[in-house]
Predict the structure.
Amino acid sequence: MKASAFSYARATSIDNAIELLAAHGDGAKVLSGGQSLMPAMNLRLLAPQLIVDIGALAELRGITVAGGLMRVGALTRHCELLKSGAITLHAPLVAEAIAHVAHPAIRNRGTIGGSLAHADPAAELPACMVALNATIIVRGVAGERRIAAADFFKGIYETVLSPQDLLVAVEWAIAPGNSAHYFHEFARRHGDYAIVGLAAQAVVENGRLIDFRPVLFSVGDRPQLARAAASLVNVAVSPARLSQALQALGEELDPPEDQAASASMRRHLAKVLLAQCVSKLLNRPDLNAGGSA
Amino acid sequence: MTASLSISLLVNGERVDAIVLPRLNLADFLREHLKLTGTHVGCEHGVCGACTVRVNGDIVRACLTLAAQSDGASVETIEGLSDSGEIADLQAAFRDRNALQCGFCTPGMLIAAQDLLTQEAEPDRARIREHLSGNYCRCTGYHAIVDAVEATARRRRERTP
């Protein structure tokens, strides 16, 4: 189908974009890469009265590293993340995850800000941001707000953003040298929405997880930090301990059931992913054997 | 409020000035306004890849791009790639290998394949499949398409020592 009629405004600055949004309330939508918004409009799931195109705002684009922080502008496209040496070096989790985001033609247009603001529960980047403990930077009429990624996502396509807010950037601390990461997702075909996925950031020392943030996606209405994994931090992980954590994970998850998978299948796959993740991060093949049961 | 916009862009190297409605997407602009009907419209929500075109050198979904967003851009369609001879060898390989039947997906498939071939000289079959994963073909089962792309990559390597 075709999108229904709307008005179109090309924002000339961040302030101008916020003025336009403030003037039109929830009748307005921000157009970034358009790779989620346009399908929703073409399917008539969304029919905004005004599109505020922020595509020309160069100040929202780019990847910078300074003072131990990595900052990625909201308009930075997936293909730019994929090709960025700074991302490969300082955020290999994101580099690995981005290859799973849709297809080349979509990655050439889709943006990190768009993906985070859209908040699809099956999307890779929101989970990565929670795993990296990132801060999402938002500008609104009252000025700038900094929101922890873990507090940003509120439900299916729901965030703390108000219709007058513009997501301008995301920022996270550069991973220390002893960091490790894991990313994997199960999907029917490459580039499809994940049935279940796991993005994890960790610090490993002397065979132990000193810090561990495994975040599951497509198992609920938002990215979900696996609380059960706390029992694996700062201890020697035995197969029995991992098995207990996996059982606790199954209990803490309440996955949805849809045409892609049943709730129990998602729960099972989440356990498989966590077991693989711990096994890989600790370089302990013996742990994966216990986890897949 | 849904006032028309004036846009100016390059299409296959030629300057085009037009007045468009905001809701008009790039695929419909190319097809309806410019009569460049090689850009096909399949699913209209970014899944099938039939509308793939190049914008400023990068492949994009024309159905997920507004004509208004293409103001100032350089757009290349299958007509442009075909007429310039850029993909003549790839097209020949598709014919030789029967990598098309109904032809609906073919323009998008060719543009996506050419995108890979310009980035990588020696893609293996898995890479070819991955790069074409956003383009649906309901006739061939993909095998012949992968063959054609692989053969073209090989011939181009042989031509450029």
